[in-house]
């Protein structure tokens, strides 16, 4: 089995005893969908989930048992620099590992502009991450090279399992048993507009897709 690491670090929000962490919903959703592939499910397993800004050298040392692991980074404005630092140290330490970057803060023109600080990233995912991740992991199993940039649109959200109800977050709930957690509920994706100040300000999301209401209610 190949180890997979879900990495979506965030700050704890709130004050004192009320400071609480966020569930890493986005990267977890990508994994729960990818794992519906029999090929992925039989060849990959979750080794760790990072949802807070842990000490970077400690994490890299901790993961020494997976020199060929797959590290999935979900990038936002609040964790982009942290993720670049962590992923660079991982690649320097474990050259055989696979680094995948996704999320709204990954630059679309990173290759054209020669982003030297992202040369260590193996695959950059734009837009929806679920099908792209499934393709990436299946390619690894089949020894098929992945393209440096991947973008595979989702036509429906009905087939995406919930990281909440499938138990993926159970270990986090147990670890944070003395703390409150903050959760994101996603009812739909997309918007017909392209406002630059919004995560949906991207024409790849101009069609509105909805999650089944029963799934939302179950979560």
Explain this structure.
With 219 residues, the chain is α/β, with parallel strands linked by helices. It is built from 7 helices and 10 strands. Helix content is 28%, strand content 19%. Strands 3-1-4-5-6-7 form a 6-stranded parallel sheet, sandwiched between helices. Strands 2-8 form a two-stranded parallel sheet. Strand 6, helix 5 (130-141) and strand 7 form a beta-alpha-beta unit. Helix 1 (25-34) crosses helix 5 (130-141). The model has no long low-confidence stretch (mean pLDDT 91).
Which helices and strands appear, and what pairs or packs with what?
Layout: E1 2-10, E2 21-22, H1 25-34, H2 38-43, E3 44-52, H3 56-62, E4 70-74, H4 80-93, E5 98-102, E6 123-125, H5 130-141, E7 149-150, H6 170-175, E8 181-182, E9 188-189, E10 209-210, H7 213-218
Parallel strand pairs: 1-3, 1-4, 2-8, 4-5, 5-6, 6-7
Antiparallel strand pairs: 9-10
List keywords for this structure.
219 residues, alpha/beta, six-stranded parallel beta sheet, two-stranded parallel ribbon, 7 helices, 28% helix, 19% strand
Strand order of the largest sheet: 3-1-4-5-6-7
List segments where confidence is low: pLDDT < 50 over at least 5 consecutive residues.
Answer: none
Mean pLDDT: 91
The count of strands amounts to: 10
Q: State the share of residues found in helices, binned by percent.
A: 25-40%
**Kindly, what is the distance between the CA atoms of the first and last residues, rounded to a whole number of angstroms?**
29 Å
Rg over alpha carbons: 17 Å
The structural class is alpha/beta
The general outline is globular
Q: Give me the strand/helix succession.
A: EEHHEHEHEEHEHEEEH
Helix segment tally? 7
């Amino acid at each position: 089995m190949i180890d997979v690491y879900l990495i979506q670090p965030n700050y704890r929000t709130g004050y004192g005893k009320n400071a609480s962490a966020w569930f890493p919903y986005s990267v977890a959703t990508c994994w729960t969908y990818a794992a519906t592939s029999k090929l992925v499910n039989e060849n990959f397993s979750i080794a760790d989930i990072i949802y807070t800004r842990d000490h970077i050298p400690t994490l890299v040392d901790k993961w020494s048992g997976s020199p060929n692991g797959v590290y999935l980074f979900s990038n936002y404005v609040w964790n982009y620099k942290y993720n670049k630092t962590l992923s660079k140290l991982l690649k320097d330490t474990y050259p055989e590992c696979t680094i995948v970057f996704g999320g709204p803060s990954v630059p679309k023109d990173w290759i054209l502009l020669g982003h030297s600080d992202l040369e260590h990233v193996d695959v950059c995912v734009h837009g929806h991450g679920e099908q792209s991740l499934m393709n990436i992991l299946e390619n690894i199993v089949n020894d098929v090279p992945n393209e440096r940039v991947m973008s595979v649109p989702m036509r429906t959200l009905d087939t995406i399992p919930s990281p909440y109800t499938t138990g993926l977050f159970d270990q986090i709930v147990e670890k944070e048993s003395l703390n409150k957690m903050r959760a994101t509920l996603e009812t739909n994706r997309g918007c017909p507009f392209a406002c630059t100040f919004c995560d949906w300000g991207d024409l790849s999301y101009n069609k509105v897709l909805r999650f089944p209401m029963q799934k939302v209610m179950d979560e």
